Amino acid sequence: MDESRLLLGMAAVFAGTTVLFAMFGIVYSPVLLVVAALFGVVTYLFWTHGTGRLAARVYERVERQAASNAGGKRRRTTDQRRGSGSRQRRAGDGGFGAGPREEWIPPGERRRGSQRGRQQSDPSQRRRETGRDPRGRAPRSSDGPTAAEAYRTLGLDPDADQQAIKQAYRKKVKTVHPDTDGGDEERFKEVKAAYERLSED
């Protein structure tokens, strides 16, 4: 579940609780109005955080503070650096060797941009990027047996249904499993690969 949806859902629950406490506070006891006010504050915080407004406000405040602090400090440190011969700090550096700062994108805009990109990509492009087909299945391995080899390994006809495949697999596994007497690990791997190949189809 998306974090913003969860926060907005919590805000809705707290808003409903706030209304209930306010109504009971008016009817029964003014003490409940204080509780309603506290729930209202929590509702507001959930809502601002869920919509991304809280992060945007904090970021803007930090940027304003950094800009106001940078004016006096930058002049002073530049003069000190010129005197000591060390390199000047460029605007946009992250400080302490962190490199340039990335541009901040509010959470709501990030989500919208990523959804647009997903909708526009075609299934074959997604398959190349993720290694999976659009239905979420893993790509078939070319290392495994072919369908004909898998049927031969399990001793089945090619027209066998899934129930017959499962029964033949269980019967073979009992005889070739490495934990049984006379079991063969390589043969067990072949039987397992054959069953996996036939259960994919």
From TrEMBL:
Membrane-spanning intervals of the chain: 7-24, 30-47
SMART domains from the UniProt entry: DnaJ (SM00271)
Superkingdom, natural source: Archaea
One Gene Ontology CC term in the entry: cytoplasm
CDD domains: DnaJ
KW Transmembrane helix (keyword) present: yes
Transmembrane helix in keyword set: yes
Stretches with biased composition (Basic and acidic residues): 100-112, 124-136, 176-188
Pfam hit, one: DnaJ
GO aspect biological process, one term: protein refolding
GO molecular function, one term: unfolded protein binding
Domain J: 149-201
Keyword field: Chaperone, Membrane, Transmembrane, Transmembrane helix
Protein name: J domain-containing protein
Organism: Halapricum salinum
